[in-house]
Every structure is written in C-alpha cells, then in structure tokens.
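ok trying this again, last paste got cut off
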Amino acid sequence: MSHPLFSEAWADALALTIDRSAAESGEVGLWDGTVLLTDGDEGVRLDLAEGRCRDARPLRTGDHADARVVFGAERSVWARLIEGELDPMEAVMAREIRLEKGSFLELLPHIDSARLIFRSVREVADAGEL
C-alpha cells in the first residue's frame, strides 16, 4: 500500500522498507546520522544508526540544523524518481536532486546507502499521490 509522499504514514513505511532492505543487504550499516529528503516545503527526517533507520517522520522546524545530509528536489523530480524515470545518483550529480547539506566527499563512502534509501523511496511512494 502506498501513502502520500512525506506523510506520517509514508515516513513509517519508509523506515520499515529501509530496515528490511538494509537487513538483506547491509548497505545502511556504515551511515550514521540524520538524513533529510525534502521538496523545500515538506520532507522527511531519517535517523540512521547501527544499520537501521531508528526513526522516520515528517520534517519539523529545526530539523535542517541537526541534519548531516539533506537531499532536496522539486516535487516533479521526486515523481520522476518514484516512477523509475530517473537514476537518483545521476540526478544528484546533475543537481536535479540537490545535496543541500553535506558534501559529495562525505557522500561517496555512503553511495550504496543512498541508493538503498532512494530505492526505498521508490517502493513506498506512488507518484499519483504527489
């Protein structure tokens, strides 16, 4: 079942999907910290630690200050990602998905983790609900 992007139910489903995928692949294990996914108005906060997503919820005031990495994109870009029309890492390199906080050097060791997160986004969202 899909949920509207960045909703509370979507955030819960995303956390479960990340945990399931990480358990199967081990890809999130090395990335500890807070990651935000946002369209500028709405978004979700992911708290990653010890190989799992400890918490996922819609953004609140002040979340940007504590985030280690922030990925931002227009809603239309999120829709293309969800529909499978856009490779997330190519979109980051082309700045369609902006790395608003953090650096490419910091991201490089965590490319597999980032891919897992974006695959999970694709799995739990339905672009028709954007």
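PB: full thing came through this time. Strands lie at 33-38, 43-49, 52-58, 69-72, 98-101.
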